[in-house]
Amino acid sequence: MKKIVVVGGGTAGWLAANHLGKKFKGNGEVTVTLIESPDIAPIGVGEGTVPNIRKTLSSFGISETEFIRECDVTFKQSIKFVNWMDKQKHGNDNFFHHLFDAPDKFSEDLTPYWLKHGQANRYADMLSPQHSACEHNKAPKSITTPEYEGMLGYAYHLNAAKFAHLLCKNAVEKFAIEHIKANVTNVELSNTGSIAALNTKELGKLEFDFYLDCTGFESLLSGKALNVPFVDKSKELLVNSALVVQVPTEETDEIPPYTVATAHQAGWIWDIALTNRRGVGFVYSDNHMSDDEAKAKLDHYLKGNSSGLTYRKLPMKVGHREKFWHKNCVSLGLAQGFLEPLEATSILLTDFAASFLADRFPESNEQMILLEQRFNHVMGYAWDRVVDFIKLHYCISDRTDSKFWMDNQKEETIPGSLKARLDLWQQFSPQKEDFFSKFEVFDYDNYLYVLYGMRYKTQLAYLPSSDHDKAKEQAERIKAIAAQLNLQLPNHRELINKIKKYGLQDV
Question: What GO terms are given for molecular function (predicted)?
């Protein structure tokens, strides 16, 4: 495997190129090339990330200061879910936070105490001071905190097009990735069914040993050339369309340090604040709402400020390839599959898969069969667990105000693996041992925030009085930490402005 090619740019292609470039840096025998069409624009709406991206960017040698300055970056400490529960029972604009700090970061696990005595309070508010920091629009760090470190856990919101450009620059300059602008017209297969060559409009025939398909929904290599079947997940995840729009903001506007995900009668709306605009997406099921209704609802959400704005419709083919690695080709990003963007799954799965591939890349044809089986097993497990976690948000909701929410609660739409866990968690609160694989992309902490943010009914366990007193003390301590952090941490926009002016400390 001497000649590796990534077909397609965008976030997926350039993440893959950086992972592979880092892997083979200094290895003169291996070349990595990225072929990008000059005529096809990337989707460009994947603007939310999860905390692991900090580790990835740092490993690529990208300065956090440069990243924040170049990509319109803001900090993301949570996803705030609004109206995911019944308004009659929980009030208009009911909400909960899925925080990025673990619920037991500042104390022992207070879940049993909250279940028994704390339900007058929001779960995340009792367990973590980050809830208060989010609600007060605080940054997760100060200007003197070193790059990629924080007083609170965080990820980023970013301009996807600018992010891809920064990754491109890094890959070419640091890892000697060859960047070719060309349109692939067709794919040639060998007599064994593997990919033999790419034919391009501008450069003719190009031959490589190993191919990465980052061609987006088109899936030019895995789907069209290799005919890898698509596994449809639309019976479990019902939303299949999105209207997206960019809304300009003022330099003085507050920047929430979280994604807002507001539920509506047939889906939900993402609202991501960058430094100079908001990225808004109205996600819906067109089996439960017409396109015209969706547009009217998005107009309403934008409070009549939609004049002059351009809506783009994105159809969503929900599911993934049956195999992610076939012969000498691995698919990544949207070519690998797509699930609705709840919980920022697209960049997360791409980064996870690209890192996993680079970590143990085949050196020869003989190694490929074993590594192909391993990769497909792990990625299949990861995708299934992500489907479970996304479905969780819908199926435990107590909303019954529309057919969409009632259909999501039907047993036949809930994966068996999720149903088994929910049955267990009706009797016992989740334990870390319930998440036995390190390939659980979302695990114990994530489930706790969603389950109890949405007030999932778990049978109360016995709580000894000594544990009760200790837990009560710890809950009071978390309140004190929250008050202290609110005084200590800067306003979110204030920190972004300081980073642009002064920069963060190098690690």
Answer: monooxygenase activity; nucleotide binding
Q: 170 and 280 in one domain?
A: no
Residue 278, SS3?
strand
Say yes or no to pLDDT of 427 above 70. yes
**Listed range (95-99, 313-317, 419-423) with the worst mean pLDDT:** 313-317
440 is a domain residue? no
Q: Specify the pTM.
A: 0.96
The CATH code of the domain that includes 46 is 3.50.50.60
Instruction: Say if residue 161 is in the same domain as residue 60.
Output: yes
Per DSSP, what are the bridge partners of residue 33? Answer: 5, 178
- 340 annotated as ligand-binding: no
Residues 250 and 293 occupy one common structural domain: yes
Q: Which residues pair with 246 in a beta bridge?
A: 279
One domain for residues 280 and 308: yes
Q: Output the six-digit token pair for 419.
A: 């149903």
Write down the pLDDT at residue 322: 97
pLDDT band at residue 507 using 50, 70 and 90 as cut-offs? low
Give the sign of the dihedral formed by CA 290, CA 292, CA 298, CA 300: negative
Residues classed as catalytic: 76
Spatial distance between the Cα atoms of 106 and 128, rounded to a whole number of angstroms: 7
Ligand-binding annotation for 347, yes or no, is yes
Residues 278 and 306 in one domain: yes
- Residues 489-501 have a mean pLDDT of 97
9 is annotated as contributing to ligand binding: yes
